[in-house]
Amino acid sequence: MSLRIKTLASFVNIMDKVADVGCDHAYLAIYLAENNSCQSILATEINPHSYQNASQNIKHANLEDKIKLFLTDGIKDIASNEVDTLIIAGLGTHTILQIIKDAQAKNIKKLIIQSNNDLYLLRSSLKKRGFYLTKEKVLKEKDIWYTIDVFTLTKYKQTNLINYWGIKEPLNKKYLQENYHHLQSLNNKVTFKDLKRKLNILYQIYLIKKYL
User: Fold this and answer.
1) pTM tops 0.85, yes or no
2) Sign (positive/negative) of CA torsion 62, 64, 66, 67?
3) Residue of 2, 18, 3, 4 lying closest to 114 (CA atoms)
4) Whether residues 208 and 123 fall in one domain
5) From residue 72, how far is each of 33, 112, 183, 199 by CA, in Å?
6) Which of 81, 106, 110, 170 is the most exposed place for a label (fewest CB within 10 A)?
């Protein structure tokens, strides 16, 4: 099992009612079910081919009685009392935000998110919807950085520093250093003719240095 899947699973509690949204092959749902990690687990997939793969994997693992599988968009066909924790991994931020928007009327209390892009937009938008970043893990697997964020309804002062660069954690230093060097490289290439982008890069550099 991949480190990314194990890390996603590590944020699940025994009393959570979990929906793995966009489950692909259902590896995460299977891992949760095999380890009795939560109260209940369902998996959803919008792509029919991926849905069939997930269904076959669940059957092969003899977990049809533990994992409910749905062919649906997000959790649109899921009853509000069936889930309180969403896991959404491997999708883009705009897609994730749309899924969460559709799900907010369904008693969701916790979000475990691994977005492929635009973490600032993800964090700042979820804050406006009442979900605050409370836990985080950054990991590197096969030379790719993954940021896994956990959002709950626990309100606190979530600053722009957190919106851009997450929760300060000494173990994240290499990740931050790589991003800092990337921003410096971009800054050298972008001129003040593109003023908006230039200022945004400089602002991100200013913020990230607070963590380094």
Assistant:
1) yes
2) positive
3) 4
4) no
5) 21, 19, 39, 41
6) 170
Is 104 within the bounds of a domain?
yes
Angle at 49 between CA 150 and CA 110, to 5 degrees: 15
| 23-37 exposure pattern, b = at least 16 Cβ within 10 A, e = fewer | bbebbbbbbbbeeeb
From start to end of the chain, where are the E strands?
17-21, 40-45, 67-71, 85-91, 110-115, 132-141, 144-152
Residue 97: CATH number of its domain: 3.40.50.150
Backbone region of residue 112 per phi and psi (left: phi > 0; alpha: psi in -120 to 50; beta: other values): beta
Of 117, 43, 134, which Cα lies nearest the Cα of 86?
43
Q: What is the pLDDT of residue 59?
A: 97
Residue of 9, 15, 75 lying closest to 42 (CA atoms): 75
Residue at 160 is within a domain: no
User: Kind and range of the H or E element at 99?
Assistant: helix 93-103
Segments forming the whole domain that contains residue 66? 3-155
Which of 124, 133, 72, 64 has its CA nearest to residue 103?
A: 72
In the chain, pLDDT over 70 holds for what percent of residues?
A: 100
Q: First-to-last CA distance in the chain?
A: 32
Q: How many domains does the chain have?
A: 2
Is pLDDT of 105 > 90?
Answer: no
Structure tokens at 11: 């944020």
